[in-house]
């Protein structure tokens, strides 16, 4: 049964408390929180004050995805804000091993995200240190994009490597996840589905989460 992590980037920010209540009452496992700085990606989302408030509204896991430059400067702040999982981008980290250790030393689970153009093989020397690998199935920065089909090959390759090494590393997939393609993503080897528009733009978000969870 997959872990479902709805992305609040697609939620109604005017009624954020209601959206959190809906997720709490649903079968969603995690809250996926996308932080964008307008530098690493061409968009700006929300930051620490919003995450602090969301943390007070849920006991579910807060899965924070940093699409920012120099994430090491803010790791402690995101820990203080309530992040359970902190994911940084391979492409944003000159000293990735140090970034991973910093996150773990702060008591959070450490994730590493890969953009669509980045091969999974580049993580082979740090894979044993990572709790979660986030495969971007769209180019990061904006919600509502279409799933890049080549992602399925990346997921399969990564899952084979994780299983061969006997690791417990989770594979998370973010971007263009729908009810139509979710099964193929899980079958390829993913553990966690991030769904934004699919959940929050549906007529019945709780039912959509249930259907994703049931795959």
From TrEMBL:
Protein keywords: Carbohydrate metabolism, Isomerase, Metal-binding
PROSITE patterns: RIBUL_P_3_EPIMER_1, RIBUL_P_3_EPIMER_2
Cofactor(s) required for function per UniProt: a divalent metal cation; Fe(2+); Zn(2+); Mn(2+)
Binding positions for substrate per the UniProt entry: 7, 65, 141-144, 174-176, 196-197
Positions of a divalent metal cation binding: 32, 34, 65, 174
Pfam families to which the protein is assigned, alphabetical: Ribul_P_3_epim
Cofactor note: Binds 1 divalent metal cation per subunit.
Stored SUPFAM superfamilies: Ribulose-phoshate binding barrel
Keyword set includes Metal-binding: yes
Family the entry assigns: Belongs to the ribulose-phosphate 3-epimerase family.
Name by which UniProt lists this protein: Ribulose-phosphate 3-epimerase
Organism name: Pinibacter soli
Gene that this polypeptide is encoded by: rpe
